[in-house]
Amino acid sequence: MGTLVTLHLPPDSPVANLPWIITIGALDDEEEWEPLVCGPYERPHALALAQAVVADEDLMAVVEPLLPLADAAAIRDEIELARSGQELDTTATDLDGGEGPLRTTPGRPPSEDEVRAGFARIAAKLTSGG
Fold first, then answer.
1. In whole angstroms, what is the distance from residue 118 CA to residue 22 CA?
2. What are the boundaries of the region Disordered (predicted)?
3. Cβ(50)–Cβ(61) below 8 Å
4. Are 51 and 95 in contact (CB under 8 A)?
5. What pTM, to 2 d.p., does this model score?
């Protein structure tokens, strides 16, 4: 019933190892409420949680990488890259059998303990610089 939008990544993409966020909002333009942004999560957790939330609701979830940029120069570089017009390969998937399937099957939603373990792994990556 809902829609899940995410990036298509090649299997060896380093972007898959970044922290990911979920933005959940209304699918219908007539609903007026601020979207909810949550995360960071590991990519498989973000996809599975987003799918579980929007599966039976008229909601849209956007799952995208969070760029842990450490200084203003790195942010400016990303802005210039975005301005250069490089296209991102995204897909919108109606979870009731509409548009094309996701290339990564989200799977079952992770447990709270699995998500918290993912938080710890993300924090370790962010604080180690890797």
1. 15
2. 84-115
3. yes
4. yes
5. 0.76
Contact 21, 64 (CB under 8 A): yes
3-class secondary structure for 78-90? HHHHHHCCCCCCE
Write the secondary structure of 19-70 as one string of H (helix), E (strand) and C (coil). Answer: CEEEEEEECCCCCCCCCEEEEEECHHHHHHHHHHHHCCCCEEEEEEECCCCC
Tokens 């979830």 correspond to 61
Q: Rounded CA gap, 2 and 94, in Å?
A: 6
pLDDT score recorded for residue 88: 53
Q: What is the pLDDT of residues 46-63, one digit of tens each?
A: 999 999 999 999 999 999
The one-letter amino acid code at 21 reads I
Q: Report the share of the chain in percent with pLDDT over 90.
A: 53
Does residue 15 contact residue 8 with C-beta atoms inside 8 Å? no
